[in-house]
Design a protein that fits this description.
Layout lengths: L1 H11 L4 H19 L7 H17 L5 H16 L3 H21 L4 H24 L3 H21 L2 H25 L9
């Protein structure tokens, strides 16, 4: 799993798409190999790494077919997880992948609504678990995806609902900023 994560990081810091895709294919291969190891102590980790590689191949590389595959791997991670924390992490990844699939995967209107609703559901469950466990930084990341969904709902909904989605997004972003400032009073934490 570590090799997969290293390749994912290399892909993140590479601007050339061909090089990025090469690193992402290596990340996917390493994660797949890790998933094949019998008797893994934390089997969900290899599926999360695998899902991350596939999601990035879709998101950054435009290989839209991989959105669905990444969601399958994240769902397998949810199913394999043996602790609440692992389940929460897998759900957050699944919700993010569903959100990105809805945005960039060229779904039909019905598919968009299904993906959006699934993303909101998974991210909301992850956020509840993160807050219950007092994992504040993770909850900020999850809440930022929910705020981004609110912004996109604002852009896509009919006029009567638009104002409420915009207010929801502003409220979430404001809450994120205040909480981030308390966690890191000397400045913002950089994360992608």
């Amino acid at each position: 799993v570590l090799f997969s994560q290293i390749h994912l990081e290399k892909a993140f810091y590479t601007s050339r798409i061909s090089q990025k895709m090469e690193y992402l294919r290596a990340a996917e291969s390493s994660a797949r190999e890790a998933a094949e190891i019998a008797e893994r102590v934390r089997p969900e980790e290899s599926h999360i790494a695998w899902g991350n590689a596939l999601e990035d191949m879709a998101w950054h590389g435009g290989c839209l077919f991989y959105f669905g595959k990444s969601e399958e791997k994240f769902q397998e991670a949810v199913d394999l997880a043996r602790t609440n924390r692992a389940t929460t992490t897998a759900r957050m990844n699944l919700g993010r992948a569903q959100y990105r699939h809805a945005l960039k995967g060229r779904p039909t209107i019905d598919q968009f609504k299904t993906l959006r609703d699934a993303a909101v559901s998974n991210l909301s469950m992850a956020l509840t678990d993160q807050l219950d466990a007092n994992r504040k930084f993770s909850s900020l990341q999850t809440e930022s995806f929910l705020a981004q969904i609110d912004v996109n709902l604002y852009k896509s909904e009919a006029a009567p609902l638009r104002r409420q989605h915009l207010l929801d997004a502003v409220e979430r972003f404001d809450r994120i900023a205040k909480e981030a400032k308390t966690l890191h009073p000397n400045g913002w934490v950089l994360y992608r």
